[in-house]
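COURSE: Structural Biology Practicum
ASSIGNMENT: Worksheet 4, Part C
STUDENT ID: 0417
INSTRUCTIONS: Below are two proteins. For each, the amino acid sequence is given first, followed by its structure token string. Answer the questions at the end about the second protein only.

PROTEIN I
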Amino acid sequence: MLILSRKINEKIMIGDDIAISIIEIRGDQVRIGVNAPKSVKVFRQEVFDAIRTENKAAAESRAVFPDLDLGGSREAL
């Protein structure tokens, strides 16, 4: 893990097109801004974990389809 120190209005660049800016420091909270292309998804860790958990549960679930009465004999199918 790379650990960097930054002051308000200073940035950290990730590649050529992602910039992390320090917006405000208040007590033990730091507000940051993320400037990235729209194709890059940016989430807080707890939101990312919730999405990953839901996606995993959806992938593991089995689809249940009701029996359909088509009103005819099966021979016609």
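PROTEIN II
(use this one for the questions)
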Amino acid sequence: MNPLDEIRRLYFQTSKATIDRDLARAIDLLRSMHDEDEREKAAVFMQGLADMRREFGGGRRKRPR
């Protein structure tokens, strides 16, 4: 499976339980892409994954004051 197809698959199959792992994998795949056109196509899915992480409450947490 090529990187774009795998990023697309991750986008459609991610869940609240897997979002951090899936986003990290998608970032690795994006970094491995050398074709700028492919990266631009992947950007839509990457933005969607980032939005899901925000919605699911994953990722960085604010530090208590």
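ANSWER KEY EXCERPT:
Q1: The radius of gyration is 13 Å.
Q2: Residues 36-56 form the longest helix (21 residues).
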